Amino acid sequence: LREAKGLNQTQLAQNSSLDSAFLSRLISGEKKPKIEHILALANALDITPIELVYETEYFNLLEEWVSMDQY
Fold first, then answer.
1. pTM higher than 0.85 for the full model?
2. Quick one: how far is CA 31 from the chain centroid?
3. Which of 6, 2, 5, 61 is nearest to 18 (CA)?
């Protein structure tokens, strides 16, 4: 989503008022977002929070399927 909007990670952090190190941990899955993080990211990406959650979960599911195919 971020790349589709033409943003790098630093720009997304700035646009969402999130610390870039924290955003990195969210992206890596090390941290789980709170609702205020979802709202800030959705706003920065100019999408709805539902779209953000749906796209993120869909991407995670695809990653799981691909990794299962490797076994």
1. no
2. 11
3. 2
Per-residue pLDDT for 71 more than 60?
no
Report residue 59 as tokens: 């991407």
Question: Would you say 20 and 63 are in contact if contact means Cβ atoms under 8 Å apart?
Answer: no
Burial pattern 20-44, b for ≥16 Cβ within 10 A else e, equals eeebeebeeeeeebeeebbebbbeb
Cα–Cα distance measured from residue 16 to residue 38, given in angstroms and rounded to the nearest whole number: 10
pLDDT at 60 over 80: no
> Residue 61: its pLDDT value, please?
65
Distance separating alpha carbons of residues 53 and 38, to the nearest angstrom: 8
